[in-house]
Each structure stands twice: as structure tokens, then as C-alpha cells.
């Protein structure tokens, strides 16, 4: 059984940032990831996905994101950057390996995987927030011939059949997909909560430049500003003009929350109904930690207990969680700050 000082579970942007600091400090470590290739979690997303954060604010520590710095990178650019990052820093990574169980031992932890067992004194859990697609139970009430896809599995329009598309979810992905499809087919965008629409740029600067300059990205969760921001739904960046255009053209209708599906009919919170042929669920993800068999690491709902990523159980850390400490904690350009905080705790363990 191979033994390390630190094992990092997950080699996405959070795991890679952690690996950078571990290698830099000369700490024996291994990053374990279930994907066959670094960046696959991005490559597998829908074809037209573009980040709403510019390249300048998408840097991981130790390697700038290449390309026009104020521009918005496409998802395959992100995937290639992560792969290049791992190679550039010679990070020790084992791919195509799924962690199945984490068990405490007398000297640390045992990590049982699909490719053998490992041990480490300390564990960093960097599996990210986008683990399991969240699909409402109502999907089972739709007719069998309705095409249903979560955004985790939607690639492009060729997966859909002819007929109207219902996009369920009011986030950035739902708005982008709805705007694209409404250019030439009937789309219903069901928004369960009101969202603020913000432009991608203002006066020639990306919106995230303003967020950085005003402290919105870095306000800690313990501050009044941080608490206020966390209580608000994330805004939608861009697409307002496109959505309004297709609304006026009659190919897009904004609908209230979807409350039921019945055969080929969708029912909304205001009592209105419409016939559909396709459903795209832009309803987010949930995290799954049932493989962690360490008492005290998770709360009664199965979610991490932590303070700035530090578990109350010694030697356990989390990285890449939404609002782990600040708004940017789960963003590509923000995980490095949290990784830098954790490396000091790891070194002093």
C-alpha cells in the first residue's frame, strides 16, 4: 500500500491548485481523479459553454491563463489550460481512478479506490460542487417520448427532437441555452426565481473587473457584505438582449416555476400550461460524500462541516466549495486563495 503525506481527492481546478502548493513545499502527495484526462469535467459540458469570468481572473497560481486577457474563454480552453497546468508543474496525478471509501486509521486515513488502496496522514477533498445532476422527481411524470436532458449531458441541439423545448432553471446555463435555441425554434424558459441580469462588460471592462475592484469577489463570508451576497441568487451575465429579442419575435416565452409535468404538458406556478417535446434541466447539481466514512466530517444532511475548508476532524480539508470563504471560492480564479490558506494548515499539522 502506497503512503503519502497528503492525498488530494479530485484533480479539477481546486485539486490542481492544492497540488501546486503541495509540490512547491516538497510535500509527498498524490492527486486522484476519476476522469480519464485532466479537464474532462469541462470537455463534457455543452458545446457552446463560455465562462462569464475573463481569462485575467481565471488564473490558477503559478501559470496565467493564455489568450486575450479580458476575453471570455470557452469550456475547451479551460480544459486544455488545466491539462497544461498539471504538466507545467509536474503534478503527481493518478487518473481513471475513483475513490470509493475514506476510512480513518491509527496514523491517518486509508483511501480505497477502483485501482488499489492508499494511505495518507492528511486528506484534501477537492471534488467540487458539480458532482451529481439534480433532476426534479417530476421528470418521471413526462411521456416516454419526451426528450429529457440535464445540462450535464446536453451537448447541442442535435440531441433534441422537433418541437418546443422547455428549459427549466434560471441560471447562466439555462439562459444561454434558451437564447441559442430560440433563434429558430419555440422555447419556454421556466425561471423559478427572479435573477438580476448584468452585462458581461461595462465601459470596455469585464463585469468581474468591477467585482474585484469593489471587493465583491473577495468579501469573506463572515462579513456583512459577504453574508448579503450569499443570500442573493447569482446574477445572469449577458443574454438579456438576446432573450428580449426572441421574446419580441415570439419564439421565446418566459414562464414561472415548473410545478409539474403530465405526459407532454408542462404546468407552471401561475396555472398556465403548454405542450412540449423536449426538456432541458438546468437545475444544478448536488454534492455526494457518502464515500467518506469518517465520523464528524459531515453534518446530518451529509454536507461538509468546516471553517474556511478546515474540518473539525484533524487532517481533513475541503477545497473548491461554493462560498468556502468568499464569493470566488468555487471560481477558477478564486480556488488558489483558499489553497494558499490550507497549505499553511497542512504544513503545521
TrEMBL record:
The keyword Oxidoreductase applies. GO terms for molecular function: flavin adenine dinucleotide binding; monooxygenase activity. Coiled coil: none annotated. SUPFAM superfamilies: FAD/NAD(P)-binding domain. InterPro entries: Auxin_biosynth/cation_transpt, FAD/NAD-bd_sf. Pfam families: Pyr_redox_3. Keywords: Oxidoreductase. This is Putative oxidoreductase czcO-like protein. It comes from Brevibacillus borstelensis AK1.
